Task: inverse folding
């Protein structure tokens, strides 16, 4: 059982199938469920797992490489909507369910994230689900981004 929010600074979000802010139906995801994966190194994965969070482990692709830890986080807009802010150059844009899908293909420079726990119990099974509470996403600026940022 997890009682405290989890703060992750400068975390890495998965790409491709590991990022579904649009909530599209996939082989592993029902329609409308907005999820993404935070990629963690092995040490951080163990630390977070010891706090009670559910961590999935991916075996290394190359012999001698460490395992990769993954925390699946849901971004649900309902009773407790998340506060998500997109930062691009000097601009800050709040994101909601109508435009958060932009993060699916975004080139992210930095992501700071606070995850809130939801402890559940069903038929004697228990676990903790991770939900976005607060998220700041800074986009990578290309060569011309600075030139046109004040327009």
Result:
């Amino acid at each position: 059982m997890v009682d405290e929010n989890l703060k992750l600074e400068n975390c890495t979000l998965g790409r491709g199938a590991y990022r579904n802010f649009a909530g599209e139906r996939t082989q592993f995801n029902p329609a409308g469920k907005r999820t993404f994966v935070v990629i963690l190194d092995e040490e951080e994965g163990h630390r977070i797992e010891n706090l009670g969070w559910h961590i999935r482990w991916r075996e290394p692709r190359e012999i001698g490489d460490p395992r990769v830890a993954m925390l699946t986080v849901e971004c649900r807009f309902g009773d407790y909507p998340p506060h998500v802010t997109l930062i691009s150059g000097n601009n800050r844009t709040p994101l909601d369910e109508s435009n958060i899908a932009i993060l699916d293909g975004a080139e992210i420079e930095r992501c700071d994230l606070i995850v809130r726990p939801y402890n559940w119990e069903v038929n004697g099974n228990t676990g903790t689900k991770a939900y976005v509470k607060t998220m700041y996403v800074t986009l990578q600026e290309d060569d011309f981004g600075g030139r046109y940022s004040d327009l």
User: Anything to note?
Assistant: The longest strand covers residues 108-122. The first helix runs from residue 42 to 50. The chain has a mean pLDDT of 92.
